[in-house]
Amino acid sequence: MWQRLRVSVLVLAGAALLVACGGGEPIPTSFPGLTVIGREGYLVSNLHVYKFDAREGREIWRFPSAKGNDQPRGPFAGQPVVIGDLVIVGGSITLNGAPDPHLYAISASDGSERWRFLPSPGAKEFADGVATDGKLIFAPNGDHTLYAIDPTAEDGQPRIIWTFTAQNKLWAKPVVADGRVYLPSLDHFLYALDAATGREVWRFNAGASIASTPTLADGVLYFGSFAQKLFAVRAEDGSAIWESPMDAWIWCQPLVRDEEVIVGDVKGKLYALDRRSGTRRWTAQVGGPIRAQPVAVADKLYVVSFDTYLYEIDLAVAANEGRKPVRRVLENGLNRRLLSDPMLVEDALLVPLFDGDVKLIAVDLRSGQKRFEFPPRTQP
Amino acid sequence: MNVFDLLIVNPMTNALMLLYGLLGNSYVLAIVALTLIIRLLTLPLTLRQQISSIKMAAMQPQIKALQEKYKNDPQTLSIEMRKLGFNPFSGCLPLLIQFPILIGMYQAIIRTLAVTPLSLLELGSHVYSFLPSLAQLVPIDSTLFSIFDLGQPDRFLIIPILVVISTYFANKVMTPPTTDPTMQQTNQVMQWMMPLMFGFFMLSTPVGLGIYWIVSNLVGVLQYFITKPQVDRARALHAAAASTTGAGAASSLASQKPLFEPPRSKVQVKSTGRINRSASTATREKRPTPKS
User: Fold this and answer.
1) Inter-chain touch A267–B149, beta carbons under 8 Å
2) pLDDT of residue B266
3) pLDDT the model gives residue B251
4) What residues of A are in contact with residue B124 (Cβ under 8 Å)?
5) Looking at CA atoms only, how far is residue A155 from chain B in angstroms?
6) Which end of chain B, N or C, is surrounded by fewer C-beta atoms within 10 Å?
7) ipTM above 0.85?
8) Is the Cβ pair B135, A228 closer than 8 Å?
């Protein structure tokens, strides 16, 4: 009897190990992305791309459709880009590291696939989507290469215009402005490239990986790195204006608001710095990593965190010993990790959820209550 | 942050990164070094498990006799087994304690290799802020011989096969011999089942964890041979104690220094005839004669 018990215990322990370490339903490994144009919302979330009514939460289409495709698609990640009638999204990476290395163009009208493009045989994941200047799309890839692609070059089919190869993975979307592409890389550098040719104009060493998109304001790029620093760099020549020490890695696109730069770190601390000098003005602490860019609405600041909560900070309230108080908007949270940039639509904040069946929740900022969930629960 | 992360995963994660930096940015060497450190730290547990297995194996005849005698009275059987000093979990418990270490190692490898953006983000929140230089090591170089990506499953199946072989070899070497047919059968099943289970598990887990498991097995075998003289001595003593019910064996045992000495407050005479060397003579004389 005891022998059987012992064998059973070992087998159960083994089974527990297997359950703990692998298997289960596929969970996302990259971050959802949301774009809102007028009333139309486009959401990239794990295995699907959705178009929905951004005011009411009604689903318009999803890709791949419920009917399914012959070939598997996705997972997808990053903010979708809309050019004309095309919604451009990138394939991402699965839990065990297998990538979908394709770019997809989906019809904004009906959600059908216009093209599926493999930029090179060695391409890997598009972990943070793509950027655009309105004509070309700039697609950073896990194979260290930025692909500049004309999405409708040859009879509506894509064509690579130029490529630029960094020394490590490109996991953050670049900023495109004034004929330049500002490309962050995990190889510790921020690159400035000529948008027409891909020629390197300058590079800036941030001391460690850069995994978030810089913010460009008045000719200055603000960005953080894993070196626990926030940088202000002149976009013109890549010279440093200031660098400010942080307490943890920065994986959050800074928000520039009036005279402040506001950014969060991966240990849940929010910092407001003087935009000119980089001096710390105040901080606030939330319960989990901050990856999403904060949203300012009048004198309120909204921050979402890994710990499932949406936080509100009253900017009019003075900081106590340098620290501002934070308030949870929904006391019970949104039940899922919040890692993607929310967007303001009228008086509602649309918050993409990292995982689960509900992909997005709209929070009414006046009442502090949920306005709708997407996809609506009544739909299949 | 949960306790498991705080006590197990975070120290392992940071240690792995620190070793990676110290060992010339070689992730495989970092895994090997951390495995050696873990094996060293868990050496008392491993030895306790081995001794416990030996004790249980030596007790089998007495257990069988008790089971036969009290087959219709499970409550008394349970009491008598306890008196005998039999604990079915004593062999498993140290093994089970090692599972959190394995799971912690798995999570540390997944985090440090950071194959996905989510795992890299999680790495950031678990790296100690007071070691900012660790951030410069990110992302970890996860290639090995330009063939393997340590963060992904092995598509050539080399690592799963090596895991099966090394686990089988380690089990074969380290499983204590037993004369009990049931135990022999169990051991035979386990010797095949465990390697196959781990091999199957490795089909979908990163190569890095497979390397940890292979190195851990090899170090375990090496450790076994180093500690073998002590273990053999313990085996001989327990075998003698189990087969002899007289005071001779007891006094023989009493004259030997045990590998692990229990706390004095728990010292008591066992009805098996095995006597702890610290038991008093008066108590020893009152020892009941085993009925088997």
Assistant:
1) no
2) 41
3) 42
4) 226, 248-249, 251, 266, 289
5) 35
6) N
7) yes
8) yes
